[in-house]
Design goal:
Layout lengths: L2 E7 L1 H18 L13 E8 L2 H5 L6 E5 L4 E7 L2 H6 L2 H25 L7 H12 L1
Helix pairs in contact: 1-4, 4-5
Length: 133
């Protein structure tokens, strides 16, 4: 199985993030999770970006979930809406990449703390960065 990246965001930021995400995915191709761990088959990273009004009614909740039984991770981190919308193109790209990298680091930390589990998240990040050069 592979690394899956998606977006949940209000429309103004969602279109921008989706375009950036599509550019990133086209350059990195399919990343097989099993090349970095024997404990997960898939990783889902959902990039959230909602303003304070949407956040206050429950949209964009952070999630850092790993199912060891079903062998998948579901990570949802929020990009600050106002900061994202005010940023220039390069800063927006960096914010999306950093969201992906932070999601991988969370999985790395959680898996490597669990007895008997191992995940080389830093190598996955390094491989992604190499493909994005």
């Amino acid at each position: 199985m592979r690394l899956f990246i998606s977006t949940e965001a209000q429309s103004s930021s969602g279109h921008i993030i989706s375009n950036i995400r599509n550019q990133i995915e086209s350059r990195i191709g399919n990343i097989e999770v099993t090349n970095y761990t024997n404990d997960l088959d898939s990783i889902g990273i959902i990039i959230n970006c909602f303003d304070k009004n949407f956040l206050s009614v429950g949209f964009g909740k952070t999630r850092k979930y790993i199912s060891y039984k079903n062998r998948y991770a579901d990570i949802r981190l929020n990009i600050p809406f106002e900061e994202f919308m005010e940023a220039d193109k390069d800063k927006r790209i960096d914010m999306v990449k950093n969201n992906i990298y932070e999601s991988i680091r969370i999985i790395d930390s959680k898996l490597n703390k669990k007895n008997g589990c191992k995940f080389d998240g830093e190598q996955m990040i390094s491989d992604i960065e190499e493909k994005l050069k």
